[in-house]
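Example 334.
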Amino acid sequence: MSKPKVYVTREIPERGLEIIKARFDAEVWSEYAPPPKETIVRKVTNVDALAPLLSDKIDAEVFDAGPKLRIVAQMAVGFDNIDVKEATKRGIYVTNTPGVLTETTADFAWALLMALARRVIEANEYVRNGQWKVGWHPSMLLGRDVYGATIGIVGAGRIGSAVARRAKGFNMRILYHDVVPRPNLEKELGAEPQDLETLLREADFISVHAPLLKETYHLIDEAKLKLMKKTAYLMNNSRGPVVDEEALYKALKEEWIAGAALDVFEQEPTPQNNPLLTLDNVVVAPHISSSSHETRSRMAEMVAENLTAFFEGRRPPNLVNPEVLEVRPLSKWL
Ligand code: GLV
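Predicted structure in complex with glyoxylic acid:
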């Protein structure tokens, strides 16, 4: 039997890519920038599997072009770029890479929080730009205390919970808002479940970890930002569209809130003329929360594991649409 054909939309870390190349008939898009949609549509005509990234839109147009496509094995935990409903309808399996990136992403949420609270980016510029002309001054670059403050976690799944666990070490009051109750967080950390409005009113640091769904699009909008304290900070490292950027700009410019840190944007890459980039009280990063050597390697390896399981006729460990098992039962290819 010939090997299944896989199209990998970027050079993913070697540990995963080597396995994919060894087990499958793999083609890899080797440029740094993503392949254009037309390329994916052209390549999919002839493959059994796609291994995309979160920046590739995998929708009905792609599925229509790929009559042989059986699995989409994405290297990311989020999969809002994939039309999972359409995939399921056509018997296409969809997998992601949860778990391994939880702690790495939570670390970065904390990097954003600390950078904001203690003005780390501004301080760095201050020294490098020659603004540091007085050795020490009592009001130089005043920030806000993190220790003992209140953190509000919006979306307390795997990553939100890991952010909350770190907050315990800073002796923080921990509030969370989620559609699902998280009794473990309450027991383990004394975290308090709150409605979103109360959380926004009471927290000093608000960290957004909700996935992007129809229900969470612009979850943090103008009305919600108005509820926040003037001294509070907002961090987002889930998906850009969960926060209304235009409203956020207004909130920062008009000082309804003290600052914001974004690792994700409504459009990625964010345009250079995004007005948020003109503000000193905004910390930005290019969607790198899971970007550690260890985690990205492990994510690539999970893509290989999901593909291998599927083609060996086993349920892929990270199947996001288990309903597909009814539409197209597993079968052995390898
Ligand atoms: C990154 O944003 C991911 O979803 O893995």
